[in-house]
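Supplementary Data S3. Sequence and structure tokens for construct A.
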Amino acid sequence: MHATETWAQDHLGPLEVLAFTLPTDDDAPWAALLAAVDAHAVRVLDLELLVRHAENEIEFITVEDLDQVPAGFTAFEGAYSGLLDDDDALAVLPHLADGEVAVVLLVEHVGLLGTLERFEAAGSRLLLEGIVVLEDLEEALDTNDDPDDDKE
């Protein structure tokens, strides 16, 4: 089910920030992201490039600053919106090596908009929405996988 156009214009689906190092020699990741956008699974709200210059220095850069631009990246050149800020950049900093470039995406998961609309139409209110930290999930799964925990 697709959310009605009017309702969807006033609502956002769940949001997520993803950061990864810039793949320079393979267009497959960009093709996969474009396919997700074309399938209306996600909407790219912002795409930023960051480079780490030193231990405590990270900078937003543009595609023109890159030595090598993957061909598939060109489909996303207009996706810079400035929604990501210095706090987002600082969160990426410890994960990059000096000189390494990161791509940071802010995406909206539009596949759930129809479901959210149905809940709201049935009188529900969205009370909480947030990101699950993968390390927390792994820890919870590891704790629940230990059969000896239940015997104590």
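Construct B, processed identically:
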Amino acid sequence: MMKILLLGGSGILSSEICLLALNKGYDVSMINRGKRKENIDSRATIIISDLKNDEVGKIRDKMSGEVYDVVIDFVSYNVKQLARTTEFIKGKCKQFIFISSATAYINKNDNTPYKETDLVGDTGWSYAYDKVKCEKYLAENKNQLGFEYTIIRPYVTFGKTRIPYQVIPLEYFTIINRIISKKPILFFGKDVYCTLTTSKMFAVGVVGLFLNERAYNEAIHITSSKVFVWRKIIELLAEQLNEKPDLVELTTETLHKGARILGFDVNEILYDKSRNMVFDNKKVKELVPDFDDNVDIESALKESLKYFLNNKESQKINYAWDARIDSLLSKHFPNIPTRQLSLNGYKNSLSKKERKEYICNRYDILYFFMKTIERISRKLAGKIA
């Protein structure tokens, strides 16, 4: 029986991989803090440990001498973290699968689909560049690591617990609530192409690479080949809510000029979500014949909406993020009615705490005052410590 170890295991991607591997009869274990057990299949073995803070020796002790066929790393985001990870799994597996990112590619001017052989190393967005450095670390230290590695480069991957969009907080219901409340939805570029992959599709690709010798020491992006424009995603989402979205385009030139966009990662927009991200996925199809890249976006979004609308615990709204978006829109689109960009624009009622959160982030003078107080508090706390 193949033995699999997931580093992480409770996220949307790792949960689907765990489920598929278990259904194939594999022995699946995972190391995480054990704080999101509701997202973990009861058939999997949980090794409770803090991968980022526990001592390497302590983690190895908790692994109880087990050796795995495949270890999948979802939690290393930079070389320091990856070096630490490879230290405690050294001699513990045959194949190490590192989850990198398809944003690693350097932007191409010809807009042809990216291939795994294209240049990586775009320095504009630190997240993507750190992933590239991790890939190089694996290649340069292969002989000392004691295992074969496989690099996976996913792009936007989603499922029932995640709404895919160009500018969205981790509290995904926020964007659904904006649509319902008829608040304007921001997007960048009318014809910016993106590729969406479902988490189930992604899992088929990853599991199909387990102990696949042709995948050893290779980089493979696991993406759909079906192409969309970002604004179409919101239009399809709104359609299923029986709403017509109020879409407002902001140019990336505005960001390049140094606009003080607060509430989301500017570089993620400039070096990822505002450029065409389309991929040639022949490689994964050759390696994993079961991989089907024909994503049904309408059905997938319907499943996501059903989850969010019927699960109250998932209906979290990031009012700080929402307020900063409203603030941004008010600066660049003076013709948008004030009501739409204020507390009065919500259809839902807000608690006293939520109203305070929105107001403190909506108006720049309050926002900058709040951030200044936070910075001073952190400095004082550091001096006391």
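Residues 364-384 form the longest helix (21 residues). Residues 318-385 form one domain.
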